[in-house]
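Entry type: protein chain
Record version: 2
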Amino acid sequence: MSQIPEINTNETERDEIEIDLLDLFYYYRSKIKWIIAAFIVGALLAGLCTQFLITPKYTATSTMYMVSSSSGSVVDLTDLNIGESLSQDYIELIKTRPIIDSVIRMENLDYDYEELLNMLSLTVVSDTRIIKIAVTSPDPEEAMRIANDLAVKAEETLPNLMDAPKPNIAEDAILPTEKSSPSLTKNVMIGALLMLLLTLAILTIMYLMDDTLQSAEDVEKHFGIMPLTVIPEGKIEGLQSAESDKAYRSRRFGKGRKKNGKKYV
C-alpha cells in the first residue's frame, strides 16, 4: 500500500510571511514623525506645482433652448417631446467640422478642429430642452467669445440643415472671473494622500525586511522555545569604568580607610 508523503509544515510556515497588524501599527506609531512630515511635504509639493506649474483655465457657458412648434405659435405636448429628442441631434451637429471650422475662421484662432473640439463641452440639462455650450480656455475672454460664436452659428446653420425650427439663445456667455481648473484644495489633498501612501508602503517594506528579534515572543515564534531570561542592554563601558575607579580607590586608600575625615569604600 502506497504511503502518502508527509508535507513538512514547518518549512512551509517558514516560507510564509506573517504580518502582525498590531505590531505593524506600533511600528507606524514609532515612525509617526516621518508619517506627518511626509503628509505635509506632499501637500506643499502639490500646492506649489498647482500654483506655479499648471496653467489655470476658465470656462464660459452659453445656453440654448430647443423647442418644436408644429402648429404655428401653439406648442403642445408632442412638440415638447420632439424638442427634447432633437436636443441630442443638435449636440452632435454642433460638433461637426463645418461649424467648428467656421468659428475658427471667425475668431482667427490658432487651434485646429480637434483642439477646439477638446475645449468644447455640450450637455443637455436633465429632463429639459436646454443645451449648455461650455468652452474652456486659458484665456477667459477667448472662452467667452467662442461659446457665443458657437451658439450663434448653431442658431443660423442647424435649422436649415435639419429642416427644423430655429433654436433660441437663452443666455449669452459672460466673462468668467474665476478659474475652473485646477483646484488648489483638491490637488493639495491628493498630493498629501499620495505621499502618505508612499511613505506607509516604504515603512511596511522596511518592517517586513527587518528580521531581527525584538522580543521574547519573537524568539518563541521563530525557534519554538521560550528564553529563560533576557539580558537588558546597557553601557558596558560605563560599568567597566566604575568598577576600575572603585578598585583604584580601594588600593589607594584601603577598604574602609579614612582620609581627611572621610571614609572611602
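Comment: The first strand starts at residue 58 and ends at 65.
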